[in-house]
What we know:
alpha+beta
Amino acid sequence: xxxxxxxxxxxxxxxxxxxxxxxxxxxxxxxxxxxxxxxxxxxxxxxxxxxxxxxxxxxxxxxxxxxxx
Length: 69
């Protein structure tokens, strides 16, 4: 069953003072996009990142290629 309503996921690291994003990876297979939004402004804008770009980003984070902001 495919749905157009994203299921938002907040990182387990989200208790770091509110500087967090949420992602809805459940749309990656059906639409090829991963929506990303600010966890403090859930009604605000949503950035759509291609599934491939998001996968590369996650792999880079896991490999330690990105520093903290």
